[in-house]
């Protein structure tokens, strides 16, 4: 299987497992990733960790598979290449990143709520070097996370961004020594899972929904969500 899952208590670990291709995603892998995320959302795990096998996170879309017509032609309403990036997961997802995190793989990391990365990780929208546009959310999520000037830097240069620079941008939650991204992400996931879920989920929903809202409407939405999460009076 090119996508493995493992349950550790309240934490659901999803691993892209195509190390010979630096975990580049082809059509079947994208579908298996969607199934793994759906299983997480439908189950009782509280947090997911998304990672890659063999010292890489994800090198993006598999170009050989694309050339062979493995991916369906993208449409406005159809699934994006990575299959899961069109909408946020209903529960927190943490990316645990070692090595390559390029193209659609970078967009997968941006889709996650938090990003834990090794000092050896590299980020970048290298798809632009081959004239391939971003279809998994980079132009939407990256500027919201790091600001427009830095997002334009990443987009217009298509350069490799070392982990230390990504951390300086505020893109990463935690920077770890080599080989420790997954264990650190699991510890973080366990901490999140230990907190009472209703209040946490209400706060997450409010934060993610506020972008297009005027401040008074965003504040009202926060209050509505928070009140729905309060425990009943005793």
UniProtKB/TrEMBL annotation:
Its EC number is 4.2.1.17. It holds the Pfam family ECH_1. Keywords: Lyase. Residues 213-234 are annotated as: Disordered. GO terms for molecular function: enoyl-CoA hydratase activity. The keyword Secreted does not apply. PANTHER family: ENOYL-COA HYDRATASE, IP11341P-RELATED. Belongs to the enoyl-CoA hydratase/isomerase family. This is Enoyl-CoA hydratase.
């Amino acid at each position: 299987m090119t996508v493995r899952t493992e349950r550790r208590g309240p934490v659901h670990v999803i691993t892209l497992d195509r190390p010979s291709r630096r975990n580049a995603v082809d059509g079947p892998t994208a579908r298996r990733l969607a199934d793994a995320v759906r299983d997480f959302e439908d189950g009782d795990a509280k947090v997911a960790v998304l990672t890659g096998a063999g010292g890489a996170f994800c090198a993006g879309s598999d170009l050989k598979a694309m050339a062979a017509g493995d991916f369906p032609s993208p449409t406005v309403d159809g699934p994006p290449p990575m299959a899961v990036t069109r909408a946020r997961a209903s529960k927190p997802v943490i990316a645990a990143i070692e090595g390559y995190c390029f193209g659609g793989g970078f967009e997968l990391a941006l889709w996650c709520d938090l990003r834990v990365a090794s000092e050896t990780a590299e980020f970048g929208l290298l798809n632009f070097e081959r004239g391939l546009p971003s279809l998994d959310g980079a132009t939407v999520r990256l500027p919201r996370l790091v600001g427009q000037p830095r997002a334009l830097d990443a987009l217009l240069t298509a350069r490799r961004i070392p982990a230390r620079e990504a951390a300086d941008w505020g893109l990463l939650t935690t920077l770890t020594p080599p080989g420790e991204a997954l264990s650190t992400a699991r510890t973080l996931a366990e901490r999140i899972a230990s907190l009472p879920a209703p209040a946490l989920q209400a706060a997450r929903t409010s934060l993610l929904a506020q972008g297009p809202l005027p401040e008074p409407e965003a504040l009202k939405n926060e209050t509505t969500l928070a009140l729905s999460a309060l425990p009943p009076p005793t």
